[in-house]
Each structure stands twice: as C-alpha cells, then as structure tokens.
Design brief:
TOPRIM_DnaG/twinkle; Toprim domain-containing protein
Length: 282
Amino acid sequence: MTSSSASFSDAMAAAGLAPAKPLDMHQDGKIHRYRVVGDKSGSVNGWYSLHDGSPAFGAFGSWKTSESHTWHEATTRPQTAAERAEFQRQMHATRQAREAEQQAVYSAARDKAAKLWARAHPAKSDHPYPKRKQINPIGIRQLRDMLLVPVRDSDGTLHSIQFIGQDGTKRFLTGGRTRACYFSMGQITDTLLLAEGLATGCTLFMATRHAVAVTFSCGNLQPVAKALRAKFPDLKFVICADNDVATTGNPGVTAAREAARAVGGWLAVPSFTQEVAPCPAQ
C-alpha cells in the first residue's frame, strides 16, 4: 500500500467508514464499492474513488447513510495552475460518477421495495411491536414476523422500507432513499402533524385524527417539512418533537424547532409530568 493509500484509509476509518477487510486500493479515479465495518456480510454499501496525482486526492462515502467525504494528500508544495485545474476536472468527474452510481443504487432499492411490499400483507394488531406500543398498525404491512413501513416521497413514489422486528429493532432497506421521504397516515384536512417515529405518529393519529407524516429521524424532520410545505403551502403544520431530555442538546426538540421555523409551523413538545399546549415556533 502506498503512503497516499494508507492516509486515505486512515481518513475512511476516522469518518467511521473503514473497510471490513483490507482493500487493494485502486488509484484510477473510478468508483469502487466495499463493505463497511459493521455492515452485514455480503453488503457493499461503502464506496471510494482515489486519484493518483500530485497531490493524490479522492472521495468516499456510504450509500447506506448517504454521507460523503473528500480527501487530499498533505503536501507543502503549492499546486500549479494546471494542477489545480486538473484537480477540479477530476473531482467534477468523480461527482458525476458518484451521482450516476447513486441513482443506480436508488433504482435497485425502489425495485426491491416494490417487490417486498407486494409480497407482504396488512400488519396484524397482535404483532409484538404494535401490541407493546398499544397502537394500531395503520397502513403498514407484515412479511412473516417483520413489519414493513413504506418510505415514500411527496409524489407517493415508494423509495424504501423500514423493517421493524418483534423486539422493536429497526432498519432500512439497503440503498433506499430516505431523505425528504416519510410514511403518512390519515386524510389531510386543515392540519398536518409531523413526528419522528411510527409509534409516536400512530399515537398522534389515534388521539387527534389529524393526518400524520412520520419522518423516521429528527434529521429528516426539516427535509420532509419543506417537501410537504411545497406541496401544501396553506396547510397548518405542527412539528411534534421527541423530547430527548436525557440526551445532550435535546436533539429531538432542537430539530423540531428548526423544522417548524423553516416552514412557518407550530411546535409541540411533550411533557410527561403535566399537559402542555402546542406553542408557536417563532
């Protein structure tokens, strides 16, 4: 392994995307896929592109998490104008190749999601997860012992599936798009509630009968809110936060407040000691 390959591998490890086994790094500027430490056997969610130059540079990321990082070899010699131009050209080519590969990954995931969804049947209320959470499994399906939650965009296209096991373990279909995608329940009238998780969303729907969009994570609250605001410009949005009081910075409330402000919505924060009414985010 060259010194540049070793430094590149160190950067991958520092970002939490180390290869599951040592790679024979190809410095050809092409997209190469690999298995990331911690991913299931046989998966190739990681990708990298390494260029042999002066200095060497590259990029890497994960189709599973949608993250990407760039890297360049440390050097004390300033680049020439020609080298800078070549660097920009090759990085542009890498971005194009990565985007093309990303679309191919998304397409394969959509096809797999559609097949799994077609094979599944309406979820049973006696499944351990909804039974434990005391919710009705509205609009989701079941395949053997696994619950299937559809992950759709604002046009209704099925991009991925969230799987929920009997013990509550959750995972997404590998390679599927989740950003700005959500699971919806109920008919939209004048108010739309947005929440992070399925159990919270079902509870809100059962209590209010307002339409609900489940975003699956606090980081996806704002992308989903913006996508739905573009579709429903006059609707009242209420962002229902997860009150992560035990977590530093309370990311659930922080993300919900930012999402509410981004779309001119309202913020609702639960209190488990007393009942509180929703309050404006501004």
